[in-house]
Amino acid sequence: MPLQQSRPPLPSADKRWKLVNATMRRNGYAGHALIETLHSVQDAFGFLDETSLRFVAASLDLPLSKVFGVATFYHIFMLKPKGRHACVVCTGTACYIKGAGALLEGIQERYGVDPGDTTEDDRLSVLTARCVGACGLAPAVVLDGSMIGKQTSDTLIAQLEELD
Ligand code: FES
Fold first, then answer.
1. Reported CATH class of domain 85-162
2. Every domain of the chain and the residues it spans
3. Which residues of the chain have pLDDT under 50?
4. Ligand 1 center to residue 66 CA distance, Å?
5. What span, in angstroms and rounded, lies between the C-alpha atoms of 47 and 79?
């Protein structure tokens, strides 16, 4: 009987990791699933950070250097932003219908940054994700890793203003 390769535990209880894991499982945890898996991370989290890259590398049994190499080679992948705070606005269908566009417009008006950009003082980076797994809370935003649902431009800006 072949030895079952041990998989690393999910990095946290955040259910978005299950979406990422499902992508890898569907591909039999084969190395060729790398790009699809990185897309899945970005769709769920808005960007790729070291935790996610290490998790993907260990799960697919690939050298970390290869995973970093692919993640940085393709411009479509967004690495963890440089701002002290990260605001990921979900632009998936449910959130889009419920006004994600207005959230992005509000941010652009207040801070002058578009998705993928960071404010000049490095205080805030703004990103988008395709579905953060909380469609019932649309429009959803993940602010510094915490899910905040049912936002309006005003409630979101108020929370962003509170950040240091
Ligand atoms: S579409 Fe935004 S959480 Fe699913």
1. alpha beta
2. 16-73, 85-162
3. 1-2
4. 30
5. 5
